[in-house]
Amino acid sequence: MKDTHAALVRMANQIARNFVAIGHDRAVLATADHIDSFWDPRMKAGIFAGDRSSLDPIAAAAIDHLQQHGDPGPQTRATEFAKKGDLHNSDAG
Amino acid sequence: MGYEPAPDFGTPASTAKEQVTLTIDGRAVTVPAGTSVMRAAAEAGGSIPKLCATDNVKSFGSCRLCLVEIEGARGTPASCTTPVGEGMVVKTQTPRLEKLRKGVMELYISDHPLDCLTCSANGDCELQDQAAAVGLRDVRYGYENANHLAQPTDNSNPYFHYDPSKCIVCSRCVRACAEVQGTFALTIDGRGFASMVSAGQKEDDFLSSECVSCGACVQACPTATLQEKSVKEIGLPERAVVTTCAYCGVGCTFRAEMRGEQLVRMVPYKDGKANRGHSCVKGRFAYGYANHQDRITSPMIRDSIHDPWREVSWEEALGFAASKVQAIKAEHGAMALGGITSSRCTNEETFLVQKLIRSVFGANNVDTCARVCHSPTGYGLKTTFGTSAGTQDFDSVMQTDVALVIGANPTDGHPVFASRLKKRLREGAKLIVIDPRRIDLVRTPHVEASYHLPLQPGTNVAVLTAMAHVIVTEGLVDRAYIEERCEIDAYEDWARFVSDERHSPEVLEAVTRVPAADLREAARLYATGGNAAIYYGLGVTEHSQGSSTVMAIANLAMCTGNVGRPGVGVNPLRGQNNVQGACDMGSFPHELPGYRHLSDGETRALFEKDWGVSLDPNPGLRINNMLDAAVDGTFKAIYIQGEDILQSDPNTRHVADGLAAMDCVIVHDLFLNETANYAHVFLPGSTFLEKNGTFTNAERRIQPVRKVMEPANGMEDWQVTQSLANALGAEWSYTHPSEILDEIARLTGSFAGVSWDMLQKRGSVQWPVNEKYPDGSPVMHMNGFVRGKGLFVVTDYVPTDEKTGPRFPLLLTTGRILSQYNVGAQTRRTANTVWHPEDLLEMHPVDAENRGLKDGDWARLASRTGETTLRVTVTDRVAPGVVYTTFHHPATQANVVTTDYSDWATNCPEYKVTAVQVSPSNGPTDWQETYESWSEKSRRIAPEPMEPAE
Ligand code: SF4
Ligand code: SF4
Ligand code: SF4
Ligand code: FES
Question: CB burial class (10 A; 0-12, 13-18, 19+) of residue B56?
């Protein structure tokens, strides 16, 4: 379990670090959205339940946000497009 | 179809728009300007005798057999070198021409062995055909004069022979090697009568020469001089079926030429839109694995991975698998089940596997091997352009002025595309290569890169941002394009970001090690050199910033206006044949086919209605997370189709631990691969020659795969998946992949217009194919980006966590070579091994000397994760501090040393950067030896039980 948690923390930190450049508040929401869009429920539950002391500030805030408010909705184009799903007009993109 | 050799129009088609009308033998013929008289006659259904002309190469005019008479012209010009003219009146058959041709033919025949009846080309020889065509009956010159009949045959190439005694010195082979393949391995040596074809230097044979065994010369040769050995062994083909190569993402089409149930040869299909009649050694020759003795054709099961395998009936194997899966589901829930689709299988097979997992297993834990190669392409291109795919067709490269190749090695990985690219470069286009290694393209015959930026592995984002810095700060952006086509606010943010001095090439040189002056020049060339196209491969995606790099590439293309017309664009070169298709078909755990997220209720409803089930709206696990979950005890069973994750995924031990922790591993493959060492159920697979379906290549081209022989295992792969689903209680009743394709079209907008019938008629089509684009879409984003405006994304360079230090001072990067494919399961089982018997470690002379290593020495390669041994090859292709190897052989276990660092957005593993140390060694490591013996043990198959005595 310990290794898996460490892997989750590493993933969350890595996501957060790649959003740093868009500014703190947007990065928190983008990280939360990214995790919500791509993580399986047991991974989310794992990071909610585990020790957060090794999380970077943006990642930690994102996890708090997710736990308290749930999915912030699409924050980046990648998740926005996918979640909109315009059926018959899909460009498969 | 019955057997007819592929038609040959004598000279290449003209692409001119203007039409010209002339009269040939009294008939009016209209063709594009620039067409040869020979081709015009052939297109009109006639045929002018010829020997030195063939439509894959430019005409040469040496044999003088194709003479014609043209009203008003002097003499008898060669029709292959004479272009059509408006109002021209041509005669192709007159007594004078007949006499001249007979004379020419006689000279040729007089130096040719007359053993036609026993020659392997008998019936498929142009010399024979043309002799008959010109009515040659007897030869006046005897063999008593000097001739070439005693020349020995060169059999060094494993797939074709060169028998100079039959050569007519037409030079078609030489020209094919130069013009089509771009290797320039062949020359005509000597002059006049003494002239003959020669590969490489005097002492060379075909194998030791520069020849890459693409087969273009063999295809071009009109006689049996250069001929596939298989023709001699099996005999001439009797029928031909057009199908698609199952190796790489170029997606070449071939005529599979058959004699009975035996495949005689694969001949590149001239109408193939991806390959235009060309091929590489893999697709052309390396199909022998299909009948290799290692191939498993009956299902097998075992209770424990320590037991030997037991061969059983399909029914028993499927029943065994189903009961295990059901028991696990009852005890641990659907979340404990999952599967992996294959980029080697067809769209229809992949679609079925994800359908099985989502709708029958009841979980979204489905992933694909594309995870480990191009998942960042999906994320990056979708974010910036709105589509998860390359923007161009391959033909587009012929209109490119500047090609930027980054993190790809096309001459090895995508050889047929590389030949097109080299052709364009020989026509004068410029080339920029960004790669830690001096790949072959940097300098090959008649091609030289304008700039090679040998960056430090792991610094792609820094290099691309520095290029953007130059383009923006020097005012080289295409402002009008950006304003019209892109989100302007995002552009301004991005432009401000990249303009910052900390992103200048001079500042970043410290991390990238790319000389700032070169980088500036390369950026200027890309921005101002005309149509600029970017081609990239796994050297971009397989990094901790893979997705960011893809977005940085898209930013560059947008800011210079290089998206949305032929000749430009962003082009991921896909590794395996159906990476694009596997991604399109919903192989990722968070999305349904067509890249639609599971959280979208409307999309889910569409599938739920069609499939008659309810779907879990939550994303499932990715491969690496499945393995973690297995170790944690929450993931228990996996169905793996056509994928060897133990060998191809990073950190082999982590994969092995994950697999060993599962209760039911079902491997569906051709061979007992490495992953199967941990399997409980083995379901034998079928080869691409044994099934119907479609593959989608790197240009989004959907191409049919056609069955040319019955599956040796008794079932096509989609049938196996269907049987497994039905054993689990589903009631699927597909009778042909076309019905699966119909379902895909019904549920996925971009495939709406695709059907099996349509593909039979059209050959191939590029998605999207729907009401808006009924004929498909060769180039995307023509009138604006798919999702409205293009989006610039700020890509901050975040160095990887994998760092060199005193213990691990070198950076290892990995790649592939021409003759081998991926983990080598197929190519290692063919004669291709003559070119690559083992994986080698490339190392710079300075690093080698520091460690006391010489060419051919065994070395221990160690990282923080593990160690392996392999032999060293000393070369300055790699920079000091960088080492390089391939991962084609299981014995090397290169992935024992790779880490589980991965792309931040998609978890695509960071294969391209591992900190390592290299030291002298005596041979294989303990792990290699232990693994070897365990692997042997785990592959045991129990002998057939004896019939009980009465
Ligand atoms: S096989 Fe290809 S590379 Fe080799 S000599 Fe022939 S054309 Fe050239
Ligand atoms: S080997 Fe074949 S193609 Fe080449 S010159 Fe001889 S006959 Fe012509
Ligand atoms: S491996 Fe690739 S380039 Fe070679 S023949 Fe097959 S599709 Fe073409
Ligand atoms: S075919 Fe025209 S000169 Fe040989």
Answer: buried
CA-based nearest distance B276→chain A, Å:
27
Stretch(es) of chain B classified as CATH 3.40.228.10: 382-572
User: How many angstroms does the Cα of residue B818 sit away from the middle of ligand 3?
Assistant: 10
- Rounded to the nearest 5°, which phi and psi values hold at B498? -70, -25
Answer whether B198 contacts ligand 1 (Cβ < 6 A).
no
| Domain parsing of chain A, residue ranges | 4-75
Q: Is B51's C-beta closer than 6 angstroms to any atom of ligand 2?
A: no
Q: Which of A14, A20, A42 sits opposite B796 (nearest CB)?
A: A20
Pairs across A and B, CB distance < 8 A: 144
pTM: 0.90
- The CATH fold assigned to B333-373+579-751 is Rossmann fold (3.40.50)
CATH T-level topology, domain B382-572: Dimethylsulfoxide Reductase; domain 2 (3.40.228)
Give the CATH fold of the B19-93 domain: Ubiquitin-like (UB roll) (3.10.20)
Q: Is B185 in the pocket of ligand 1 (CB under 6 A)?
A: yes
Nearest residue of A to residue B493, measured between CA atoms: A22
Spatial CB neighbours of B95, under 8 Å, sequence gap ≥ 6: none
Walking along chain B (950 residues) 10 residues at a time, the average pLDDT comes out as 81 94 95 96 92 94 93 93 96 93 86 79 84 73 57 90 90 94 90 78 84 94 92 91 91 93 93 92 89 90 94 96 97 96 93 96 90 77 84 93 94 92 95 93 90 92 96 96 92 94 96 96 96 91 86 95 94 85 90 89 93 94 92 95 84 88 96 92 95 93 94 94 96 96 92 91 89 86 82 86 86 77 72 81 93 92 86 92 82 71 81 87 73 78 59
Contact of A5 with A35, CB cutoff 8 Å: no
Length of chain B: 950
User: Ligand 2 centroid vs B161 CA: distance in angstroms?
Assistant: 12
Assess contact for B172 and B62: CB atoms under 8 A. Answer: no
Ligand 3, atom 8: nearest CA belongs to which residue?
Answer: B252
Span(s) in chain B for CATH 3.40.50.740: 333-373+579-751
User: What is the 8-class DSSP label of residue B90?
Assistant: E
Residue extent(s) of CATH 2.40.40.20 domains in chain B: 810-937
What fold characterizes domain B810-937? Barwin-like endoglucanases (2.40.40)
Q: What is the number of the ligand 4 atom nearest to the C-alpha of B60?
A: 3
Which value, to the nearest 10 degrees, does the dihedral of the CA atoms of residues B673, B677, B679, B681 take? 60
